[in-house]
Amino acid sequence: MSLVSASHPHAPQVVGILGGMGPAAGADFVRLFVQACTDRMEVLGIPVHDQAYPEHWLAQVPIPDRTAALNDTRPGAHQPADPMLQATGRLAALGARVVAIACNTAHAWHGILQQRFPQMVVLHGVQEVVAELSARKVQGVGLLATRGAYDAGLYQRELERARIACFVPDDHEREQLMQGIYDGVKAGNYPLARQRFEAVSIALQERYGVSTLIMGCTEIPLALAEHPRLEGLSLVNPSVVLASALARHAYWHIHPAG
Predict the structure, then answer these.
(1) PROSITE patterns, from UniProt (predicted)?
(2) pLDDT tens across 152-184, in order?
């Protein structure tokens, strides 16, 4: 019997991905997760083949804008909590034991999801990123994010707990980031997005002397990559970190061979 056949006790856990925020970022997260699983199998000494990957489900559903919702807390259809809960419920019904939220700003509702579904592990992507930075002994970072993520203090709060200094853009630069996200990536204009993201990245580097930047919105890594204009900057992609964490959970009960 294969090590990872569906009936084998050592088969990887079924996992879920809560996407749709936006659709391109959710689809990219699946790609990152598959790569993370490949890396995990190599560490564990599992032969890499199609049947060795975990059963994983992407809930790619329309979810209201997270930044807009954080600025308008009135109950109604514009709030993302209800569709996020419904989508997570579908993932639970499909057997998912662990769920990753493929959106940084949506982690403002992480507590609601985890409370409603205590039988599942809802990974906290922001905490995973901060834990990795702490392990690397990073002392200060620049943060690229949505206006909603800044206002909610999603990263700032966790970084402060870890005693990592967090440097953020000014109001004009935050508007540039929002243009890059909404008029750029979400509208398919990647050159515009790249220009806006690069401009803010360089401004943070020059103003604060940071060498590490968190790309704290899933759209940002789709248009921003390390190249000569960003020399001296290390770009942290939270989706890569979260995908790796999801892969670890999928194979958590399988021990290295040998």
Answers:
(1) ASP_GLU_RACEMASE_1
(2) 999 999 999 999 999 999 999 999 999 999 999
Strand partners, 56: 15
Tens of pLDDT, residues 87-116: 999 999 999 999 999 999 999 999 999 999
Q: For residues 83 and 94, give the distance between their C-alpha atoms in angstroms, rounded to a whole number.
A: 17
Residue type, 156: Q
Which of these, 133, 122, 148, lies nearest to 217 by C-alpha position? Answer: 148
C-alpha distances (whole Å) from 98 to each of 3, 62, 86, 117 are 21, 21, 16, 10
Write down the residue that tokens 């990872």 correspond to: 4
